[in-house]
Each structure stands twice: as C-alpha cells, then as structure tokens.
Amino acid sequence: MPRFSHYEAALGSQLFEKVKNCRVLMVGAGGIGCELLKNLVMSGFNQIELVDLDTIDLSNLNRQFLFQKQHIKKSKAQVARESALKFNPNANIVAHHANIKDPQFSIEWFKSFDIVMNALDNLDARRHVNTMCLVANIPLIESGSEGYLGQVTIIKKGETECYECQPKPTRKTYPVCTIRSTPSSPIHCIVWAKSYLFNQLFGIPEEEDEELDKELNDENADEIANLKAETLALKRIREAMGSQDYPKIVFQKIFNDDINRLLIMEDMWKTRKQPVPLVYEELEKLKDTESQMDQTTNSNTLRDQRLWSLTENFSIFLESIKRLSTQLLAEKMTNPDASLTFDKDDIDAMDFITATSNLRARIFGIEEKTKFQVKAMAGNIIPAIATTNAIVAGMIVMQAFKVLNGDLNECKTVYCSPDRRPKSILSELLNKPNPDCSVCQSVHVTLNVNVKKATLRDFLKEVIQGHDEDEEDVCEVSVEEGGRIIYDVEYDDNLDVTFEKLNITDGKMVKVTPESEDDEKYPTVFAISHRETFESPNTWFHIDGDITSRSRTQVNSNAHKRKLDDSEIDPQEESSRKRPAVIENEVIVQDDDLIMTEDGPQRLIVID
Amino acid sequence: MNIDKKTQKYDRQLRLWQASGQAALENSKVCLINGTATGCEILKDLVLPGIGSFTVVDKKEVDGADAGISFFLDEDRIGTNRAQAVTELLQELNEDVRGFYLAEDPISLIENRLDYFLQFTIVIATDIPEKPLLKLSEALWNANIPLFIVRTTGFIGYFRIVHPEHTVVETHPDSIMDLRLDVPFPALEQYAKTFDFDSMDNMDHGHIPYVVILLKYLDQWKKDHDGKLPCTSAEKKQFKQIIESGRRNVDEENFAEALANAWRAFTATKVPHQVQEIFNDPACETLTANSSSFWILARAIRDFVANEGQGLLPLAGSVPDMKADTSTFVSLQTIYRQKAKAEIAIVRSHVNKILNSIGRTSDFIHDDEIDSFCKHAAFIQVIRYRSLKEEYISDPKKAEIDRWLQDPQDNIVHYVLIRAIDKFYEANNRYPGIILNFKL
After folding, report:
1. Which residues in chain B are closer than 8 Å to A375, comparing Cβ atoms?
2. Is A383's CB within 8 Å of B15's CB?
3. Is residue B45 within 8 angstroms of chain A, CB to CB?
4. Out of A232, A369, B125, B353, which residue is the most buried by the measure of CB atoms under 10 Å away?
5. Inter-chain contact A390–B49, Cβ cutoff 8 Å?
6. What Gene Ontology terms describe where this protein resides (cellular component) (chain A) (predicted)?
C-alpha cells in the first residue's frame, strides 16, 4: 500500500497535492523544530529547507529526538536532516547551518517559499523572520513553548497582527554601580560574574554588557571613572593568562584589591554594610585544614543542588579559571582573536559563574546560591519538554493545512496551557493588524544604490528631500540601520561617508523616520540593493516601489519618475510579479532589533 | 551516566518537576498495547525524559501504511514484528531507558493472561475494541493501576484516563508563601519585638526584613483596631501610608518590599477550600489497612488542624528572598524552619497513631514523605475518574449525551462516532468505510 494512502484519504487529494508541491521554510531545528520536521516529512511535505545556526548540546537530548549523544557539537540543521531522511528517504530537505539573518537569506530567497514556519528560541530572530515574511508577503506560522505552555499563530501581511503589533517585554537591566560596587542581592553578584567578569577575562572585553545600565549622572560620575580604571587594570592582568599564578592574581585583584578600593569610599558604606575582602592565603590554609579533617563531604548529594562551602567555592573558582584559560589559549593557537562566550550549558563556565558570584556574595554579606539556582538566574533557562513541543508542532501543521487551502479566515491562534483546565487547548480568532504598529505599518521599498559611491548626504538630498542644490537646510528625519543611529537632526557626523563605509551594504535595511511634527509617523524602510551603474550618470540611486502611498515624507520626484519611466524591468522581478500571492514592492519592514539579543522568558510568546 | 551529567541532560525538565518528579518517572514501568503511530508518539515523549522501562505488546507485522504514518518505522521493517521494530527504534532515543517487547496478540493476552498487565505502573491502550478493554480496565482498576485509552482516526483524537483516584502532593504551585503575618506564632512575634526601629542607625534600618516591618506595623494596627486586620480598601490604603511614613528615604528597598507585600498581611491564613473538602472526604474519615499514605497523611494533618494547629495547617517553613543582611535573614529563616520542624514532629506522632490503629508499622510512611506533605499541605489534590464499566454499562449518562448532541459544535459527536465505530467493529470484525483495496 502506498506510503501516504492514509494521509491522502484524510486530507483529500486536492490539499494533498498542495502539500506535496509547496515549498516550506523551517527556521529553527530545536525542540519544536525536531517535532515539526518529523510532522512535515510524515505528512507528505516534500520540499523543505531548514535553517539553524546552533550545534547540539547534551541538554537538548531530553526532547530533541532527532539528536543522540554521538551528535553532540554537530550542526542541528544537518543532523536533523539526516535523521529525518532515514524515515522518509523521498523527502527533499535542504539544511543550512547558518544564521537566518545572514544576507544570503534575502527577500528574494524568502519569496521562493509558499509558507514559513518559525520554531525559534529568541526574540531577535523572530523579529527578523517576521519582517522578512512581511516584506516578501509570505504567510508565517509563529510558535513557541515554555514548560507546559505552548502557542501557535499565523502572521499574514495586511490581514493579521504581525509579531510586533503587540509590545514585547524588554529585558531587565541593572545600574552599573549596583553591579560593580554595591551589590545587594544574589542576582547582582551573578550578573557581575557573568556579564562583567567573564567577558573581561575570557570574552571580548570591549563588548558592552547589555544587562548594565551605564547612564551617567552626577551621583555616579566619580565611581564610573574609578570603575573604568579598575577594568583597565584587569585587562593588564589578563595578559598573565596561562601562567601558574594566574588564578591567584585574578583572585587577589577582584576579591581583595578591588574590595579594599571600594572600602576607601566611605560615603558608600554609610547606609550599607561594608564588604569584607577575602584573603587568598587564609582560604588556602582553611582548605588544607578542612581537607585533613574530612575527606568525604557530601559525596552522595547532588553537587549542583547543594550550597558549596567557602573553600569549595574557592577551589572551584581556581580550577574553573584554569580550565577556561586552557580552553581559550588552545583556541588562540588557531585563531589569535578567539574569545569565549558565556554558555549556560558549559560546565566550566557555570562552575566559574557559581563560585565567583558566591565568593562575591560572601564578601558583601549576600545569600549564596546553588549551581542549579545560579544556572537558572544566569541563563534565562526556559523549561522544556518533548510533550509540549510535540503538541505545538502538531498545531503548526494543522494551521499550515488551512493556509495552504486558502482558508486564512479559519486560522486561529492556538494555546496549550494546563493551567486552564479542563480545557487545555484553547484557540482564539486572529487579530487584525495594529494600525499603530511601527513594523507592519511602515512602508517598504527597495533602494538600488551604489554603496561604494553614494554618501549619506547624497541619500538625504536625492532620495529623502529630493533636491540636488547645495542648500544647507536640516533634513528632519532620523536614519537607522540595525538599531544604530546613522543620522538625526542633532547628529550629522556621517553625512559625507559612503554607504559602504557606514557598513550599509547589500541586504541591509535602512529605516527613515520623519521627525517633524506635521509628518505622518510611519517610517519608510529601504532595503539596500547594491548596483554599480544607473541609467542617469548623475545619480547613485534607483527606487523600486512607491514610497508616497503611506508616508508624507518627501520623496525625490525625479527618482520616482525614473522608476515609472523605466522600461527595463528585471526579469526575475517580472516573473515573481506573476505569482498571484505576491504583491510586488508594496511592503512593510523595520529592522529594530537593538535591545534584545537573548531570549528573555516571556509568558506565551515564547521560546524553543 | 554520572549524576552531574544526568542533571545536565535533564536540566530543562528538572526545572519543571524537580528531582522528585524525575525519580517518579525513573521508577515507572510503562506498557503500550499496540505499537501504533499514536502509541509511539506517546512513548517517545515518555522515553525522552527518562522513564524506567517500557514494554510494547503487539503481534502485528509492519505494513507500508505503518511506515507512512509512524516516524519510528522505516520501510526496511515492513513484514517484521511491529512490537520489536518500534521497541528497537524507541530504545535509541534514550540509553537510560530499558525497552522490552512481547510479540503476542494483546486481545488474547487479556483473555488468557490478564495478570501480565499488573506488573506495570501505567498501561496505555491504543486500538483495542470495547470488550477486551472493559476486561482489562476492570483488572487494572482493582489493582489501582492507571489505564490510558487512546484512539485516533483522521483528524480526530480521543483519550481517557481510567483510574479510581489520583492523588498529588507536589502540585508545583508558583510559590509556597506561608508567612503567618496575620497570626504570628510566638517565636516570630518575639523576634519582631527585638527590632526597635527608632533606635536603629540608617544601615540597620535599611536592612530590616520586610516580614518584620509588616509584623511590626500590623501589631500596632491591631492594637489600635480591636485586634482586627485592615479590611476595607480605605483601611488598607491607610495601613500602607503608615508603612510609608516609617520609611526614612526612598532608597530603602526593604520598605518598598514591605509595601509590595502588604496585601499578604491583609489576607487571613486559613485552610483552603479544596483542602477542607479533602478532609471531609469519606476516605479521610474512615481509614483502613488498605488506605494509601496520601489519605493517612491527610487525616494526620486534619487531626493536627483540629488540635495543635488551632485551625491552621502545618507551617510550610520556607521564607522568600528579601532585602536583609545575611545574619538577620538566616535568623528569620531559622525561626520559620524550627516552627515547621516542630509541627512536622507533631504530624509524625499523629501519623504513627493512625498507622498503629490500622495495624501498620510506622516505617510505612517515611519522614521525607511527611516533610513534603506538610510543606505542600495547602496545595494537595485528589482527582477521581469514572470506571469504564460505569461509562459503558451501568451509567452511560445518555441524557447528558443527548443534551450535548443538541449543540452541533460540541465535541461529544466525536465521542459518539468513536463508540459507534467500535460497535461496528464488534459486529462485523472490520472498520466501517473500508473500500476494496483500501484497508485501514
């Protein structure tokens, strides 16, 4: 009996044909991704591309069933593909071990799919795919799970809410002085160990830790200057990495010298308890006496789930520094610029964070935590099980059937939530787009530009203001790229810099927001497409699309006219224009992934 | 696998059900009747998180359609025994789990060797007709083993649990906050009195734990209001203003915490309704030699509440994180812990008395069990199901079903259809809707 006879019977031959012929993009091959890929190949989907930048970790194996122990450290996308092919050798699966934000995954590439399914674990990538699908006008099925909670919804340009129509919670930040000088709770010590010390010793020290709020004010100015000096000193110490004494030198610096320095600031301790520096030699002595007294401390209890003693923290601190240094130095042999990034599932890193934050807590008289607890606090750990992911992946496919059948109006947002017993699966109608959403309501056009020649000034004059004369009036817009401010009314440093030098290259998105009061608030987003030559020798620009329709931002009428007069239409564009589902060029985009770089835990708009 | 590696592998689920949940999982023996696609999906979700063992009972051979719908069957397996095939493939998912299979017909096993199923912790039955299902369910019911009945057809799925009673102690509530602010016990009251707010320097004042702040102001309030708690919203507002006025500067986070937690001081500590219902249950009233430890403990707690507890459950004993210096925090923690410990000891004596009266020795219930029960006493749950016999034969609730059927949106229609399919199968020995070369 043919393999899919049951399915054909259940779906009907018409839908089954659509399923067979549709091109699916799956973003993420993790918890939901593994389940989803299984469902797709088992329900007759034949053309699947999947993208995941991650590699397999031990802590994935409790749910990501396409992976086994021998696959640890291998590409999730590749292994998922291989495992799935074993079960349906006829499926055509293309795996990309890459970041979905890479320029190779262009708008045109997104347009080659009929449906996109997100199985992601972070806000940043979700935002990106949301944007790309809006631009490409491809239906997106968005999903997430956290513990027993799961959610699936559909995003379709102009018809439903997009991922950003509702605000997302932002990540908590801490004032830098609290973290560096006056911690008062365990989380302060953990953030210090993870975001500050780990990066200083093993990561890229210049990288700003986004958990720290570095806003200067009169009160903290002196202390921030001190902290800068302290950081510099630590950087010098880093040069001793690998030497026998390195752990001791670091210990001496951070748990003794820096604390003594803080104690000099008497004002700081008028209303706070004074910290007590740790002395290396004393701890060493204590360790020796303890080890003589007792050789078998708690060997039967889970080391991760009980509190470590002072000397345990001390020893583990020294050991983990040694191990992390060895690891980093080994990596530097092949790549001199190598650095370590914090990974909550890396045993050495978690040992280091736990011991370091506990030693600091001891100094400041703050409660200490077990490694298990520290991991949850440092790592934003999202609980995850196979069951919820399986339910979510099933719901994704059910919604995909409706989308493919052209029944978008029958699609629902579906939740699974055991808290709402007796009904643990609930659905609600899809919402209409939020008219104030700055993402799906902005105007999107493609800007062909010679990035090597064109400067920001050229752009503002020719494209935004629309005149070539050397008038020195201020252009009342702000220009952003990937969260960076390139230009605004008070910041014109970049005017004579080329696009290329500004790192605004092929595939990037530039958002222009009108700042003057009488303008409509919707921004215009330009998808940058590099082009060397233009019909007119006097310009570096050519716009595809209509930027006047929604926005009153002034547009260069010449540039626009050129478009209308243009008889040469890109053949690829012409062919895609024939696809009924795609309305060319009238698109929506914004790229504002600036704050969130990690997956914060959020109720129901989640993860994995 | 060593113990740390194991914690790491199961980290994401341990956050959900803790070590005790994991231990329960690891001690379980699961039986799957018929290695169907749905059955395999279920086992996959149990094998991955690490059950102790599973056994698949199935005599059928793998056919092409099996390979089409079950992810665990590839085409090379066509013609081999389905129980063996799925067991081998499921086993690959987790090396910590032991997989077994029995290549026998489950229906004849139910007919001839019903005892076979009594060795398992749970039994999952897929694709079993009503008659043998009834027989199996009765045996499992009497042995207190939960049975899961699972049915899928096309887009419709059905499952039901058959189990006389499921009791849960660790219900994993969001937080177990049991501070007794409204009814402080003597040691707590004494401790709060040792804080003289006015004579403290700014540093100490900024480190008074919020529990003490609330106790202090609530004590004063009660003195001024005939021993009553703030009750109306105006009174609650006023109480918060009093706290606010005691704050020396806005930087005092402990006062901010006190204000944020002030509502806890207005909330009367009492036995929750669903726990009271458990106390009133006949199973709690009349204990026998067959009573489970849950009911013995529930009764011991009930006796405690009626006597030493003076109407209150045993103290949970944990204290949340709060702004305080370490030594103050530790003393506060110790006060709650010691009180909890003392109450656990009293509950232990009730437990022993009960065990003695039903002819059991005191080691029937371990101290750990009592600790956990006391800690979760406010959150315990009992779930009861109907027997299959009641549903199919003695009390099918026809009137209700008829009423539900009036609503065309109601899922009950699927229930009726699934039952009808079973009846059809019983009469014709084939499923309805089968066309010549299309065999389900």
Report:
1. 11
2. yes
3. yes
4. B125
5. no
6. cytoplasm; SUMO activating enzyme complex
Query: How many angstroms away from the CA of A81 is the closest CA of chain B?
Result: 14
B402 lies within 8 A of chain A by CB: no
- Pair of tokens at residue A320: 């983990």
* Residues of chain A contacting residue B64, judged by C-beta atoms under 8 Å apart: 1-3, 5
All residues at 6 or more sequence positions from A102 whose CB lies less than 8 Å from its CB, including other chains: none
Hey, is the C-beta of B401 within 8 angstroms of any chain A C-beta? no
Is A416 tagged catalytic?
A: no
Per-residue model confidence as pLDDT tens digits over A306-361: 889 999 999 999 999 999 999 898 888 888 888 888 888 888 999 999 999 999 99
Contact A4 B68 (CB under 8 A): yes
Residue A425 β-bridge partners: A416
The pLDDT, as a whole number, for residue A566 is 36
Question: Are B93 and B240 members of one domain?
Answer: no
Answer whether residue B431 is part of any domain. no
The Cα–Cα gap between B206 and A102 comes to 51
Q: Which of A177, A189, A416, A475 is catalytic?
A: A177
Query: Are the Cβ atoms of B16 and A271 closer than 8 angstroms?
Result: no
Task: Say if B72 falls within a structural domain.
Answer: yes
- Write out the two tokens for A109: 């590439």
Residue B310 burial (CB count, 10 A): 9
Of B7, B71, B326, the CB nearest to A302: B7
Tell whether B253 is within 8 A of chain A (Cβ): yes
d(CA B24, CA B122): 12
Task: Report if residue B399 sits inside a domain.
Answer: no
Q: Closest to A271 (Cβ–Cβ): which among B3, B203, B323?
A: B203
Same domain (yes/no): B151, B190: no
Same domain, B159 and B23: yes
User: What residues are paired with A254 via a beta bridge?
Assistant: none
Q: Locate tokens 């060593």: which residue? A: B2
Q: What is the pLDDT of residue A2?
A: 63
Q: Are residues B282 and B206 in the same domain?
A: no
Place of tokens 């019983």: B426
Report residues of chain B scoring pLDDT below 50: 436, 438-440
Residues B360 and B247 in one domain: no
- Residue type (1 letter), A311: T
CB contact under 8 A, A387 and B45: yes
Q: Cα Rg for chain A, rounded, in angstroms?
A: 28
pLDDT in tens, A450-482: 888 888 888 888 888 765 455 556 678 888 887
- Binned at pLDDT 50, 70 and 90, residue A580 comes out as very low
Same domain for B154 and B199? Answer: no
Domain count, chain B: 3
Task: Tell me if residue B53 falls in helix, strand or coil.
Answer: strand
The residue range of the domain holding B308 is 273-384
Closest to A231 (Cα-Cα) out of A197, A265, A208: A197
**Chain B 117-146, CB below 8 Å of chain A: which residues?**
none
Contact between residue A19 and residue A405 where contact means Cβ atoms under 8 Å apart: no
User: Chain A to chain B, count of Cβ pairs less than 8 Å apart?
Assistant: 132
Identify all chain B residues contacting A270, using CB atoms and an 8 Å cutoff.
202-203
| Alpha-carbon distance values, A220 to A323, A537, B126 (Å) | 36, 55, 67
Collect all residues of chain B within an 8 Å Cβ-Cβ radius of residue A15: none
DSSP β-bridge partners for residue B102: B57
Query: pTM for the full model?
Result: 0.80
Please tell me whether residues B24 and B143 are part of one structural domain: yes
Token readout for B9 is 């592998």
* Position A164 pLDDT exceeds 50: yes
- A63 labelled binding-site residue: yes
Q: Which pLDDT does position A557 carry in this prediction?
A: 37
Closest chain A residue by Cα to residue B38: A390
* Record: contact B94-A304, CB cut-off 8 A: no
Per-residue pLDDT at A300 exceeds 60: no
CATH of the domain at B30: 3.40.50.720
Domains of chain A plus CATH, in order, are 5-170+384-409+581-595 (3.40.50.720), 186-366 (1.10.10.520), 443-544 (3.10.290.20)
When pLDDT is cut at 50, 70 and 90, the band that residue A195 belongs to is confident
